[in-house]
């Protein structure tokens, strides 16, 4: 009996013997590992996002103790999380991605979102409705716009010739044939042009 090639079965055996750890290696599109209870993963993720949001808002409070902030950090965090969960309840990956972007925007003092949420200038509903491009500070938007305009001007500007015959230098055309040019004839007085 011939010995079979067991390269493929070896990997299968090691995955089945690994048990629970092997099932964690493959992911679904939802961002939840196989073998995990989706409701438990969502619960833990939602609690972690509420805690992170509350911590960020409280950090702003501690940096500005003289300001009387009417909104509660924990209430803002809870309502934010509920609205975010409602928006992304079918995709844990989408939920986490948007949460991270929102958290970075809140931690960036140049955006002013934390101040606006705590003072009630901006509602949580309005913050959730913001598109990702609106989460960057105004200064960053202006820099991006300027870079885009400069890049566009460079693209539209002077196009370089694709052929050496298109280059003009002091009204002298450079010729490709035989490597001889009109300018060489002007340099050498013994050169016969005719």
Automatic annotation (TrEMBL):
<dbReference type="Pfam" id="PF07500">
    <property type="entry name" value="TFIIS_M"/>
</dbReference>
<feature type="region of interest" description="Disordered">
    <location>
        <begin position="1"/>
        <end position="36"/>
    </location>
</feature>
<dbReference type="InterPro" id="IPR036575">
    <property type="entry name" value="TFIIS_cen_dom_sf"/>
</dbReference>
<dbReference type="InterPro" id="IPR003618">
    <property type="entry name" value="TFIIS_cen_dom"/>
</dbReference>
<feature type="domain" description="TFIIS central">
    <location>
        <begin position="45"/>
        <end position="163"/>
    </location>
</feature>
<dbReference type="GO" id="GO:0006351">
    <property type="term" value="P:DNA-templated transcription"/>
</dbReference>
<feature type="compositionally biased region" description="Basic and acidic residues">
    <location>
        <begin position="21"/>
        <end position="30"/>
    </location>
</feature>
<protein>
    <recommendedName>
        <fullName>TFIIS central domain-containing protein</fullName>
    </recommendedName>
</protein>
């Amino acid at each position: 009996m011939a010995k079979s090639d067991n390269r493929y079965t070896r990997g299968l055996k090691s995955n089945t013997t690994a048990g629970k750890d092997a099932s964690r290696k493959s992911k679904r599109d939802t961002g939840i590992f196989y073998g995990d209870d989706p409701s438990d993963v969502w619960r833990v993720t939602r609690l972690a996002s509420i805690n992170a949001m509350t911590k960020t808002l409280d950090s702003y409070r501690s940096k500005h103790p003289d300001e009387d902030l009417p909104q509660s950090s924990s209430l803002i965090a809870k309502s934010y999380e509920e609205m975010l969960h409602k928006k992304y309840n079918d995709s844990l990956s989408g939920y986490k991605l948007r949460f991270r972007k929102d958290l970075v925007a809140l931690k960036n003092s140049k955006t002013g979102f934390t101040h606006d949420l705590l003072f009630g200038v901006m509602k949580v509903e309005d913050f959730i409705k913001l598109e990702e491009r609106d989460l960057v500070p105004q200064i960053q938007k202006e820099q991006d716009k300027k870079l885009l305009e400069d890049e566009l001007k460079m693209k539209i500007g002077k196009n370089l010739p694709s052929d050496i015959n298109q280059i003009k230098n002091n009204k002298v055309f450079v010729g490709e044939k035989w490597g001889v040019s009109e300018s060489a004839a002007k340099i050498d007085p013994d050169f016969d042009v005719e």
